[in-house]
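Thread: "does anyone have the structure for this chain?"

Original post by V.I.:
We have the sequence but no experimental structure in hand. Need at least a predicted one for the grant figures.
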Amino acid sequence: MKIKVMLAEDQNLVRQGICNLLELSDNIEVVGQVVDGSEVVDGIERYRPDVLLLDIRMPKMTGIEALHAMNENAVMVPSIILTTFDDHQLVLEGLEAGARGFLLKDVSLESLVNAIEKVHQGETLVQPVITERILKGLSSLVTGQDEPEQVEALSVKEIEVLRLMAGGYSNREIARAIHKSEGTVKNQVSSILDKLVVRDRTQAVLRAINLGLL
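Reply from O.Q.:
Generated one for you, tokens below.
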């Protein structure tokens, strides 16, 4: 069955361009479009998408505010935020609000389809180029915040896996990089999440950065 996608984007050309791209895929169907974050909750209830593509900057309600509204209305759908190079602070806010992936708006069809498929399968995807921007900009964002609570120490191997997670690698890609089975990597990722007391991979990366582990 095709993955049903809803797109929230206020710019007509961008919205049409993404839809035209996705029409070239045999695995994905765009079931609905909205032009502002304020329409996202109603759109999800109407179109029942499997994955939401969400512009981070919209005039009435931003993508971040739409994520919060989704949480408040208990209509969460795996969401990929579409962003630009200058949005690293908003990327962090989106991760905290529950976004499962981030892509630059000039993404290729192959990367877009791959991201939708991964997020639909329960994975988290942040393009390495965006992760790099986050790492460079995070120090100024966390200044003045409370000291993080103590967490259980990570092993050397877990730190290695965590660094690959920060680069946007999937479990399969990490397994290939460290020459371990995908099952072993999955267990290591679960251990990392437990030790850092977080719910998903993106939160783990953010927590690790805040703790000075990356």
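V.I.: this helps a lot. Residues 128-142 form the longest helix (15 residues).
O.Q.: and The chain has two domains: 3-138, 146-210.
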